Amino acid sequence: MSNLSKCKYRGYEADRSKYPEMENGKAVIDLDSHKYTKIWQGPQHPGVTGNMSVELIVNGDEIVHAKTHVGYLHRGFEKLMERRKYIQCFPLVCRICVPEPDTNEYCVSAAMEDLAGITVPEKALWLRTLNLEMSRVASFLMWIGGQAGSLGMGTIGQWTVGMRDFWLDLFEEMTGGRVYHMYMIPGGVRKDLPAGFKEKTRELITRTGKLMDDVDKSFMSNVIVKSRLQGLGIITPEMVDEYGIVGPNARACGRECDIRINNPYVKYDQLDVKMITSTVGDAYARAQIRYQELRQSLDLMSQILDRIPEKGAIQAKMPNLVNWKIPAGQTYIKAESTRGEHGFYMVSDGSEKPRRVFARGASYTHAIAVLEKLAVNISLSDLAALMVSLHTCPPEIER
Amino acid sequence: MEQLIRKIKGMVSLKAYIKQRDDLHFITVKKEQLELILSHLKNNEGFTHLAFLQAVDFIEDGKFQLTYMLCNYETNVNLGVLVLIDRDKAEMNSIHSLWAHAWQYQRELFELYGIDFPGSPRVHESFVLEGWDEIPPMRRDFDTLEYSDQTFYQRPGRSTNDPAEYMKEKMYKNYAASPMIRRDNE
């Protein structure tokens, strides 16, 4: 709040001569003075996927203080996993992030394989890569819906969320589940691709590409979108390390961090993944990055489909998973979700149940420390757009 | 990385070093030397990203293990700095001055494990549990089943089965009797 006195927002310079009064570089906010209003945004709000509220103090329609409150979705997954066998963790972890559950499944499987020293067969790695990219596309499509909806453009949201449903249909064919897939299990994947799956996926890639052309014309090139998002919520390069910012939010201000390129996992080292960055750092730059990454994911999927081996094992030889004991040790596995670094820290004590499982979601910092900083001095009407542009996902904050 | 470990050994007394993978290493340091080593790693060795700070409850040893996971974006190496603290008097120095988001993890650890970080901003504010007066729920001695039985009531007319017994009896009778399956007590 120390920058309140220097407020300059989109050419409008607030008169800070009278209030808020500054004391030791901090604003003195007295709600009884009737100059400020406290309002709550959330816990149900289109700005986020899930339930999270922001306690706001506004002066007119300008936010002078913001505080994030979570706890509406706490289901205690990490505690539950400590009381379950390793294979029983899978129905839990996919629920940590609803729009993109596969990253959780991959990280947990890979953590168990790392601790137990299991090598996953080649074909299973390709199928995992395909599954991860499909979930990235589905998540990005949902994000476009949220970002458009937060700016009052519900139609574009309906296009993309409708298209996501076709991707969910493909997930259903591939895994048996639409939203929660539990496709990746320790040692590989559960099923091979069904007949005709590759052709259907290629067709959907083309259809999604065409929709993206429409989204480009109607949303990315839209003057209203540009005027609302440009200059909103600027993340500076210095903030990246200070706040632990990752993913598209960090790449939008020039930081080259993409785990698929920096620490390649599954088969990303054999794919042509490009680092997409910008130097502007505002909400529009973040939207551009995500739009381009969606297109890149479609391209990657075409590459993957060409290279999935027709034959080969999809499961490594595993012990009986019901009584599977993993040697004592600890590991950290991370993967690039649509929000950035998504990782699992797993500690085993040699028993049948994990000693500790911790899910590190990108939203943990984006939705709390970063949002509380960026929300100050913006207009109340822009808060939803800011929240979506940080791509916050509350379930991964409270696990 | 070996060079860095040698350097750290020259600076502080390293209690343990484990190489998990080429891009993941763990070092265990003394509680009082943590801030020194973290600020050195951040300012001089390029470990600028704090991925997370978490605790593991080793109740049988009476210890909490705190894990500070750092990442170096230039070498793409993760380094977990581990510290063991006493479980009875769980208190640790705050690192909020090194990373602006560290207070969040410290607030979470106070609520869920009861580990205090004196001086950390908003450390005693509630995070996900409001009005919680039991022992911190992520500690190993917190019994979720007992808490649930005491706090919630059974819906009238509803019976409860032990899932393990129920599955053995009703669903997998032949499977459970098979001599090929290794059981818990063998």
Sum up the overall morphology of chain B in one term: extended
Range of helix content of chain B:
25-40%
Give the strand order, joined by hyphens, for the main sheet of chain B. Answer: 1-2-5-4-3
CATH superfamily descriptor of chain B: NADH:ubiquinone oxidoreductase Nqo5 subunit
Strand portion of chain B, in percent?
A: 15-25%
CATH architect. name of the largest domain in chain A: Orthogonal Bundle
Question: DSSP helix count of chain B?
Answer: 6
Shape, principal axes of CA atoms of chain A: globular
CA-based gyration radius of chain B: 22 Å
Run of helices and strands of chain A: EEEEEEEHHHHHEEHHHHHHEEEHHH
Low-confidence stretches of chain B: none
Rg of chain A, Å, rounded: 22 Å
- Secondary-structure element string of chain B: HEEHEEEHHHH
Tell me about the biggest sheet of chain B? 5 strands, mixed
Description:
The complex is a heterodimer of chains A (399) and B (186). With 399 residues, chain A is of the alpha+beta class. Chain A folds into 2 domains: 4-69, no CATH class; 77-398, Cytochrome-c3 Hydrogenase, chain B (Orthogonal Bundle), CATH 1.10.645.10. Chain A is 43% helix and 15% strand. In chain A, a hairpin with a 2-residue loop joins strand 1 and strand 2 (12-13). The longest helix of chain A has 29 residues, at 122-150. Mean pLDDT of chain A is 87; it is low at 1-8. Chain B has 186 residues and is of the alpha+beta class. Chain B has a single domain, classed as 2-Layer Sandwich (Beta Polymerase, domain 2). Chain B is built from 6 helices and 5 strands, in the order H-E-E-H-E-E-E-H-H-H-H. Chain B has helices spanning 2-11, 34-44, 102-113, 144-151, 163-171, 173-177; strands spanning 16-21, 24-29, 49-58, 63-72, 77-86. Chain B has a 5-stranded mixed β-sheet with strand order 1-2-5-4-3, covered by helices on one side. The longest helix of chain B has 12 residues, at 102-113. Chain B is extended. The A-B interface holds A 70-71, 74, 76, 78-80, 82-83, 114, 241-244, 246, 255-257, 262-263, 320, 322-323, 329-332, 334, 341, 343, 345, 347, 352, 355-356, 358, 360, 364-365, 368-370, 398 and B 18, 20-21, 23-24, 26, 48-52, 54, 56-58, 65, 67, 69, 73, 76, 78, 80, 99-101, 103-104, 126-130, 137-138, 140, 144, 181-184.
